[in-house]
Amino acid sequence: MVEAGGARRHRMTLESGDHTLTLFAYRTGPLKTVLFYALTFLTLGIFRLILHWKQKWNVKVRMVPCTFEAAEYVFIVDNHNVTELQPVLRKTETMIPTENGEMRKVPELRWFLYRKLEYIWIGDETFDGNDGDEDCCWKPSSDIADKIPSRSFLAVSEANVGLTSSEILRRLEFYGRNEIVVQLRPILYLLFMEVITPFYVFQIFSVTVWYNDEYAYYASLIVALSLGSIVMDVYQIRTQEIRLRSMVHSTESVEVIRDGNEQIIGSDQLVPGDVLLIPPHGCLMQCDSVLMNGTVIVNESVLTGESVPITKVALTDETHDSIFTMEKNSKNVLFCGTQVLQTRFYRGKKVKAIVLRTAYSTLKGQLVRSIMYPKPVDFRFTKDLFKFILFLACISGCGFLYTIVVMIMRGNTLRRIIVRSLDIITITVPPALPAAMSVGIINAQLRLKKKEIFCISPSTINTCGAINVVCFDKTGTLTEDGLDFHVVRPVKASKKENNTENTISFMEEMTELTSRNGLSFDGDLVKAIATCHSLTRINGVLHGDPLDLILFQKTGWTMEEGVGDIEEETQRFDNVQPSIIKPSDDEKAEYSVIRQFTFSSSLQRMSVIVFDPSEDRPDNMMLFSKGSPEMILSLCDPKTVPEDYLTQVNAYAQHGFRLIAVARRPLDMNFNKASKVKRDSVECDLEMLGLVVMENRVKPVTLGVINQLNRANIRTVMVTGDNLLTGLSVARECGIIRPQKRAFLVEHVPGELDQYGRTKLIIKQSVSSSDEVIEDDESVSVSMGSSTWKGSSENDGFSPTNTEVEMPNAVTTENLDHLIASSYHLAISGPTFAVIVHEYPELVDQLCCVCDVFARMAPDQKQLLVEQLQAVDYTVAMCGDGANDCAALKAAHAGISLSDAEASIAAPFTSKVPDIRCVPTVISEGRAALVTSFGIFKYMAGYSLTQFVTVMHLYWISNILTDGQFMFIDMFLITMFALLFGNTPAFHRLAHTSPPTRLLSIASMTSVIGQLIIIGIAQFTVFILTAQQSWFTPYQPPVDDEVEDKRSMQGTALFCVSMFQYIILAIVYSKGKPYRGSLLSNKPMCALTVFATLLCLFIVIWPTELVLLTLGNVDLPDIYFRLFIIGVAFINALVSFAFEKGFVDYFLLGYWERYKKKRSIETIVDYVPSDHIRRPSMNGLTSSRTETTLLSGEGPQLHMTKTPKADEGQQSSSLFERIISRIGGEPAWITSSIPQSSSPDITEPEHLDRTF
């Protein structure tokens, strides 16, 4: 989709899969080009390096905006703000496909390559049908032929000729070879790209300064550590590339029809339009293709994570006049990378498919591209990290100017001024910071590996520390993979007393499905269960949907695929090989499945047409259907459905059972007609046979894990494809819906519109066995326009008669308070969610914040939900078993896969233990890693600032620490503490709140600056008092270029006190509970602390000749002054601990943060004008039902109203407090809603005004 296009435009928006690309047209300018090369040369490449880091600057400096007709380059910005510059390539007199797939010649072809896809310029010269400038746009090469009629595929298949040699060459030239190639980038290129990152460039600068300052040992250590880090990074990148290439690389010989002949070619020679022959024994699909005849059984686990074989059917005449689309015709498409297990073909004819897409345009290619170009980790901590480094750089700038001024005043040489001023920059911004920051992550990754949780994206671990909502798939994640048979409820007809009418009712529950028991009440129910499935026999073993397999095995029947006992009967099947189903207790009976309408998630059902050879009439067919109770009910003749059907369905669903309704319809048609009849014409006027009840057990660990997350105030959400009521029951059983809390269902009414022309929404209360109805003195109403829903008097699983629900224009404070306060939960189904997304976009963010169960969700809806939660500032984890969860796993901040399927390679975490106990483990390790990263960063910043203060004091006397003193601090104290800092394990229990994620928060900045002041005062005291001692000898700076003797009494005194300050900082910033274990649990660091403290005491109190010579210290003759230095360090430690624990942790992180949150809530309440709020009167009565606007925009929104109970008088602000406490964080739509004026018209937060 093009938002702003045209050949004469400079900017264009393009929808490409999951990405929205913004394209800008540029060309080179001669003057800018000359200026660019001149500045690059004059700055020795530094100017070019800066432009490499900032692509937007690169484009602005080097290029001139232009139209797309004249573009030489396209600057691309995706929806994650990742930029890329690509050249526009040109080719003259070439062939390209048209919209209907035919090839035609164009005078010029222009394209650019972006993430393995070629984007073609569709201009006036490309297609004659373009109507002016607005039709000009960029399109992926695979999307150009996007209007191919289904009849075109059928015509190619019937012709049975294939492509000609000339057509093949033209298509190969345009589409390229059918290869998904993951190219291994050269090692030297990877090394170079790592070296020119900002941190490593700064390290090169630092070690250059140190080598010039003869500080070679530490410089060499930093060089060695940096080289090791670069090598490890390059090794990890190369390993991932090799792993990905080995996973996706696949070539084999395939059989095609070309020039009217069958040929065997390499799969890399396939082009769209080729007629491909599928071998009967199966194969690995090398392209996306459309099945044209027969049926094919495939395993799509490589793409979907679902290991259940799926039956693909041929494109039929039903779609003859329609345009072929991937979404609508997915059941006809064999996707690249899927394994063909078996083909069912016409006699004398091979199964044919027409190649649709090749290489990276295929579905497998899209998956590979999503892995190669993942979504960048958008974590606030990383952004704050760079901002804090910028803050340190500003301090170093001040130190730089201070050094120049002081050195000039003291008469130092130019070389010494330059070296000392540059040295202060390397001191303030520590070059070892990147290596130190990775310590906590590496330790957390190793601890996770010991618990069989593997992480392929270590940077994601820190993100896990901020997780405040976890979305869970249901089946296979919260519950066991398989379903267990529970009972069947057959439907029977009985005569009334007057013998004129039949009464349709349910029989008692039956626990057996054998033929004998089945035929005693209704033989067709057992026949339907035994025949209506998609099972197939592969190598003698039945394969298919686990549910179908369980039910079929329960019947005890047998299945054969191939020719039956009656040859003449199978000939009537138009030479199709049928499946023969036989009961175990009747050798003569057999039932032939001659037509199968496969299961469709959109249709929620499947059907088969069955022929009984024992019948006298050959035209006597039977249609059996099974599917969701709601869908089968809509297809049945109401006269055949029991009156209490919905009551029974909801009663089972509320107890967590999965229900399948079964129905039949006799058909009077012959074999030929049955094999060609349209689905819609036979799936109607069905006769209800009964219900099959299946049980899906919750995994043993699920309840404990959910309760653990709930106690930690981490919101838990169920996202499932199952029935809404079943999902609600499982959610209540596993703790997502808390005990004794009511659940409300948000639903839509198909076909009914409100006064604004939008689909009507309603709210119903779901009543489980543990729920009570709403009290008699309380009524709830939710109004939308003039419509009202009232619960039925029967037990239909919803609210009783005294509950009235409608959906109005906006959420009212009081009724929303009633519905989504701590006593209520909301649930919604996928179809209703889709309606809200398209028709009520202003409600999407709010519903995502308060709904706990999302049922009947398609894979793209799961992904949309995750993205919407992220849009309101949640940090989202998604946990699934890989089946239909891949898109959501990739979209989440932290995807946790419980499956080893290849599709889950995109998830950062994979657990070998297939249950959700890994979720709190990942979160706790993430919290520990995040706190460690905070602590080690503040420690490294404190170390740098401490050394900065020391050096600033010494620069005042033209002195500096000796090399020995620098090495003792840098190589021993700092390096060892940094290496052992992350050894502290995660705390064994999740805390009630997540750790701070803002490095630039008031608490963090106050901590660092406060410790700097304390340390500065201590050093200043020692520096001044040292000079006042009777035995003090002032430092004599060197004259001109003579060898500098850096030893001084003031330098030694400052070194002695600063040694203890580095140890103090390590202990102060090594936080323990509630996110990490205590310092005592980190035994190596405890040992280091004791050893370092004793060593420093020894250096101060008993300075031997060896110590003085090695460190370059000067003997301070007064033992009492040396003890005074230790006393200053001790007082420094007491004040530092008191300041950190008392002021920062208790006051700022406790009282102040609570006060700030309270004020933000009050601000939102004040944002709602008083004349829009109607509070209950003192006696509990209201004069009228009022509708209060909470968040309103233009047009209608959700309203809820209620008549409160007599003892209710809560302030509307309590709503927000309960929402925040229940959902585990402040979403952006609350914090951003700051009042701008006193106008009674309330404007919705800007970011909520979006379309989908």
Automatic annotation (TrEMBL):
Pfam families linked to this entry: Cation_ATPase, Cation_ATPase_N, E1-E2_ATPase, P5-ATPase
Biased composition, class Polar residues, residue ranges: 1230-1241
SUPFAM superfamilies with a match to the protein in the record: Calcium ATPase, transduction domain A, Calcium ATPase, transmembrane domain M, HAD-like, Metal cation-transporting ATPase, ATP-binding domain N
One Gene Ontology cellular component: plasma membrane
Catalytic activity, as annotated: ATP + H2O = ADP + phosphate + H(+)
Enzyme class: translocase
Primary residence: membrane
Compartment list: Membrane
P5B-type ATPase N-terminal domain span: 18-121
Residues spanning the membrane: 34-53, 187-209, 215-235, 388-409, 936-956, 968-987, 1008-1032, 1052-1072, 1084-1103, 1123-1149
Keywords in alphabetical order: ATP-binding, Magnesium, Membrane, Metal-binding, Nucleotide-binding, Phosphoprotein, Translocase, Transmembrane, Transmembrane helix
Chain spans, region Disordered: 1192-1212, 1230-1252
EC numbers for this chain: 7.2.2.-
Annotated P-type ATPase A domain residues: 250-371
Statement: the UniProt record of this protein carries the keyword Nucleotide-binding: yes
Membrane disposition: Multi-pass membrane protein
Domain Cation-transporting P-type ATPase N-terminal: start-end pairs: 162-210
Single GO MF annotation: ATP binding
Similarity-based family: Belongs to the cation transport ATPase (P-type) (TC 3.A.3) family. Type V subfamily.
Name used for this protein in its record: Cation-transporting ATPase
